[in-house]
Amino acid sequence: MEDIVAGFAQAFDLLTGLDPALVEIVARSMIVSLSAVALAAAVGLPLGAALALARFPGRRACLVLVNAAMGLPPVVVGLALYLLLSRSGPFGVFGLLFTPEAMIIAQAILVGPIITALTRQAVQDLWREYHEHLRSLGATPLRAVPTLLWDGRVSLFTALLAGFGRATAEVGAVMIVGGNIDHVTRVMTTTIALETSRGDLALALALGIVLLVVALAVNVAAFLAQERAAGSQGA
């Protein structure tokens, strides 16, 4: 018990003192996760809108694949990406393995289906509500996409927050493709796993507290966004 209390005391010292190693790891984690969400959003938002509005052969199969991809095992994604980026793999020439870029790709693959599925649902609901009005104005489903995305911005913001929360909590895939290299690819989740195995509770606890704060902030932001949307609709 004394070791745990001492670990928490040292963890708060690291936090209040803005320990350089702690700040570096947190900053890298934020950069990797935000970049992954941006990459996933660039693909997921238009893809989700297309799945909501377009009608084509195989659409149902695409929806099933997107929903199934939301539950992809991170270690399997990491393994597949490792094989693709390794020197003997088809993309080994780019030298991305054990770099932050590989971690961003891994997180984007895991986050992408979440953003795509939530975007598809939001746009589909809005199209059902406004399609008669939009058609009366001469808008085709394709031309209505920007309007629907803007009108559903609160729901889409919540989707991005969900993706960010998923990205910051990821450990398996980023450990495999990033290698957990000090000062290069070490992020919060991989550092917590490493330091816990070493018995260094101070840094692990400090990073755990930061992760909890980030998770709480994401949930509060999502809640406030939904409350604001509900308030605007009620008005």
From TrEMBL:
Its main location: membrane. GO terms for cellular component: plasma membrane. The chain crosses the membrane at residues 30-54, 61-85, 91-118, 156-181, 201-225. Residues 26-222 form the ABC transmembrane type-1 domain. It is found in: Cell membrane. Belongs to the binding-protein-dependent transport system permease family. This is ABC-type tungstate transport system, permease protein.
